[in-house]
């Protein structure tokens, strides 16, 4: 019996048969995975999930605090929801996730959005049934935010978003404290799940027919350090790859903790996908030092070269922050030259966004926002150029694609992802979500590929799934 079932058994007022709930998620995969648990808890209480705001009796916004514009989007959404609350006074409006962990947000919400019924943080989502019961008793906003985690809560109910691809959390939180990053404050210190629990979850997903699993953590390469494990992530990845799962991925990696032998394992194991997201953030040593990233340009490139030369057909993507406080034009040019060297398959690029209470907010920042935006545009030209070049090299070849499903507009156009994580839209017929097919690439776009399903069956001829 889960702790949710125990709560329901002791308080039948928690059961909400006939009510509808909508969970809206912002931000990273960790939030999407949390939302799968929130949906699981809500359905176990009797709610039916819905997508239409007008139908909902409960609306929960699971928020992200990584950048200022993510928070602003959520505040805009809460403003819009006020009219729904007016039309339906019994509607319960809730906000949870990373924004709720910030003291400034709580103060602002109390002042500006008093019509919110419920606010809770990242550490206590398992308390949702009790918090909803409190909302019904109390006329004021119920706010419960734990300053730190009270431990990992296993076996929470869940409603997985997809039938063929699953996220599996292997840890929560992060111990790295990069000077710009809010995650160690919103998600707390690193806590790894026991390896046996992760493995059990992966084995169950394989039994249920899942084709692809992504192991999830803020810094997966540090997995197990808090449990006293040596090479914990290597051990875990190897064990998970032996479960029979067709495709296994992981994200996100920190270059400082990334062991080279992981590259050897990925090259050796057929079901470890040749795709690595390896955030570099900047190409200049002084900037990296002030970011608290704990690696140098040289050591990053050494690891990068090793992975490229060891794993056949590997795709490597990255994250880059432009205009970190005090970054000069010359230092930014080091990022451009690193990008030219690496020719990343893809990159997520952002202008630096100050986050409350992080050390970088105290650094001097003489560069104007308009210049930072111009630098970002310059970098994005490189991102587009190299992404397109890699995609063009795939034209006229066939690649294995895991089918996500047909397009909403045209049932004969499907989409899916290659082993190296490229989005492919392709013509086909009578395919099911979760099928593995070969697709002949006919056209390359900057960030996707177009093609047609081939008659060939997926045969493991090379690591990248090409025939
Ligand atoms: S490793 Fe990632 S999650 Fe951790 S503090 Fe640095 S940027 Fe944030």
Describe what this molecule looks like in 3D:
The radius of gyration is 23 Å and the shape is globular. The strands form five sheets. It has a six-stranded parallel beta sheet with strand order 2-1-3-4-5-6, sandwiched between helices. Strands 15-16-17-19-18 form a five-stranded mixed beta barrel. It has a three-stranded parallel beta sheet with strand order 7-10-11, sandwiched between helices. It has 467 residues and is of the alpha/beta class. Among the domains are: 3-144, Rossmann fold (3-Layer(aba) Sandwich); 274-390, Transcription Regulator spoIIAA (2-Layer Sandwich), CATH 3.30.750; 398-453, OB fold (Dihydrolipoamide Acetyltransferase, E2P), CATH 2.40.50. Helix 9 packs parallel to helix 11 and helix 12 packs parallel to helix 13 (369-392). The protein has 13 helices and 19 strands. It binds iron/sulfur cluster (SF4).
- CATH architectural grouping of the domain at 3-144: 3-Layer(aba) Sandwich
**Fraction of residues in H or I helices:** 25-40%
Number of continuous helical runs: 13
- SS-based structural class? alpha/beta
Q: What characteristic shape results from the CA principal axes?
A: globular
Rg over C-alpha atoms, rounded to the nearest angstrom: 23 Å
**Sheet bearing the most strands, described?**
6 strands, parallel
Between the first and last Cα atoms, what is the distance in angstroms?
Answer: 48 Å
CATH-level-4 superfamily name of the domain at 3-144: Methylthiotransferase, N-terminal domain
The distinct bound ligands, ions and cofactors come out as: iron/sulfur cluster
Q: What fraction of residues sit in β-strands?
A: 15-25%
Order of strands across the main sheet: 2-1-3-4-5-6
Can you tell me the residue ranges where pLDDT is under 50 for at least 5 consecutive residues? none
CATH T-level fold name of the domain at 3-144: Rossmann fold
If you average the pLDDT, what whole number results? 94
